[in-house]
Amino acid sequence: MLRNYFRVAFRNILKHKFFSAINIAGMAIGITSCLLIVLYVADEMSYDKFHHDADRIYQVGLHGRLGGQDIMVANTCPPLAAALVNEVTAVEASTRIAQYFGQAVIKYEDKAFTEQKVLYVDSNFFDFFNFKLIEGDPETALTDPATVVITKDMATKYFGDEPGMGKLFTIGNDNRSFKVTGVTENPPANSHFTFHMLISASSADFLQSTIWLNNFLYTYFKLHENASPDQVNDKYNELVEKYVGPEVERFMGTPLEEMRKQGGAYGYLSTKLTDIHLHSKVQGDVEPGGDITYVYLFASIGVFIVIIACINFMNLSTARSAGRAKEVGLRKTLGSLRGQMIGQFLAESMVYAFIAVVMAIVACYFLLPSFNLLSGKELGMQVLLSPRFIGSVIALVVFVGLVSGSYPAFYLTSFNAVEVLKGKVRAGMRSKAFAVCWWFCSSCCPLRLSFSPSLYISRFSSCTRKILDSTKTMS
Q1: pTM listed for this prediction
Q2: Among 51, 313, 360, 467, which residue's Cβ finds the most Cβ atoms within 10 Å?
Q3: Residue pair 100/192 in contact by the 8 Å Cβ criterion
């Protein structure tokens, strides 16, 4: 039965090439726009989930109030990490990241480059984060002073095809030498921070500071199994009283309690690693984050686009009711049941949906470079070929096929066979013209809705980069 449904469906598609082309094109445009948005949303929602213990890792942020102004930043002080491990039983380990101040001038033999994304990190960095080392030992690569780990791209840039291990760089104006003790794969784009070079924290004296009011780096902690972040949050106030209080009185001349009575505040908060990119409440992170509001907005636009594509199909199919009416009348006269004819029309719409989805995937392949350029992403087609996505595509074909074909199927099969054969059921040309015009106008909408967010993202990313560049230049 199903085989016959699809055989007849293909025959009808080939018989009515013009309407079939319009229907398939309308669906393909809508689904293409939807898939591009799905790729963007999926990428935004995937940040930092590639780390093995992502559900147990948190970033510490600083929450203060001074002069009536609330301050929530990601920067914390150097001694906080050790205090969390030593004084909070729920914390298994901690690590720190600090940005290189200014631009790093790196020299190797006769090559010299100004590098961005240079970070100081603790020796247990690779125990915390799942960045894969190609060369070197993750346990010892960042233990000694004057050692660095670089990315694969940076190794190729400086050393070509030669191994990077053991090579010596000079970094900064003082021409201090650093030894390459590891080479990593390039960090995934869906990480809330990326890097070109990691310098061991033991190389920098300023990271050994014991001043709690000196907030300039980023602190992360990992919970023990079955521990709760609330156990850490409850301890923050004790740490502030014990360590920050004396420094507030020493440097500001006012006891911490008095500062609080005057409306001031000083404390810490925890943000889950996988929430940093979209849900963080703090500012000044290693790299600018996203906004969950826009992710939800884009997802809604994607759903709306698919619905518009389905409505277009319904309109065009209904506009052809006069042409299909005799077919329905003859089938009913020959004994076809209404349920069988509904199945036939739904099968036909699923064939349309399948062809449209295939065309949409091909269109995405060619449009993805331009979309990446607009959105500032590095989205790849491998996502479209993953088993999870293929399953989603099958579900999409069924959904679009059923939704878009439901109204035409029930509408066309409701015709009375006698009236149809007498020619009393006709659809005027005005209805057809209106439906075609509606399709044209509506199909333009998905493209605009799809690329308008991209243009916004592009402008936002451009502005952010300019601000960051100017900040680094000033520093």
Answers
A1: 0.80
A2: 313
A3: no
